[in-house]
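TASK: fixed-backbone design
INPUT:
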C-alpha cells in the first residue's frame, strides 16, 4: 500500500517501525479483516500467527500484551506471572493511551511506550502479523523482531 493512502495513525506506526530497524511496510488486505481469523485468511497466514494487541491495567498501570490470537488471557494466572492484578482496560482508555482505534491497535506507535509482554506461542511461527494502527492494516514481523521493536519481554500466556 502506498504511504499516501495510509491513514495518518498507520503512518506513525510505520515511522516508529522504521526508527526501530523494521522495514516499516504496512499493508491493507483487499478484503475487510474485522477479525484475526479474517486477517489470516486474507494474508494466507496461519491463524495462530496473528497477534492481537491488548491493553490491560496491571494494578493501576496500563500494559500491553501481544497475544497469539488463539490464546485467551487468563487474568488471574497472567496477573500472578506479572506480580499484580490484571484487568482489561476500558476501550476509551485504550484509544487515549495508544492514540489508535481499539480494533487496529498496533504494538508500536503510541504516544508513550507501554510496558510490553509478548506471547511466547508466537515464537513457533517464522512470520507473524500484527495490526498497523488502524483497522484493516497489518505488518509482518517475526517473534524475535517483535520483542526487539517493542522492547517487550517474552511471557507464557494461556
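OUTPUT:
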Amino acid at each position: 500500500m502506498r504511504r499516501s493512502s495510509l491513514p495518518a495513525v498507520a503512518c506513525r506506526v510505520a515511522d516508529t517501525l522504521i526508527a526501530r530497524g523494521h522495514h516499516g511496510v504496512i499493508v491493507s488486505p483487499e478484503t475487510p479483516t474485522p477479525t484475526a481469523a479474517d486477517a489470516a485468511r486474507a494474508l494466507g497466514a496461519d491463524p495462530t500467527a496473528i497477534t492481537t494487541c491488548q491493553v490491560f491495567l496491571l494494578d493501576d498501570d496500563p500494559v500491553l500484551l501481544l497475544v497469539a490470537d488463539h490464546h485467551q488471557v487468563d487474568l488471574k494466572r497472567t496477573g500472578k506471572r506479572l506480580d499484580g492484578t490484571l484487568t482489561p482496560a476500558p476501550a476509551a482508555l485504550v484509544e487515549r493511551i495508544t492514540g489508535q482505534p481499539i480494533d487496529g491497535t498496533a504494538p508500536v506507535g503510541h504516544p508513550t511506550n507501554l510496558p510490553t509482554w509478548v506471547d511466547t506461542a508466537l515464537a513457533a511461527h517464522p512470520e507473524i502479523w500484527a495490526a498497523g494502527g488502524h483497522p484493516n492494516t497489518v505488518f509482518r514481523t517475526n517473534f524475535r523482531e517483535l520483542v526487539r521493536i517493542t522492547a517487550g519481554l517474552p511471557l507464557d500466556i494461556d
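COMMENT: Helices lie at 8-19, 36-43, 75-81, 91-98, 143-150.
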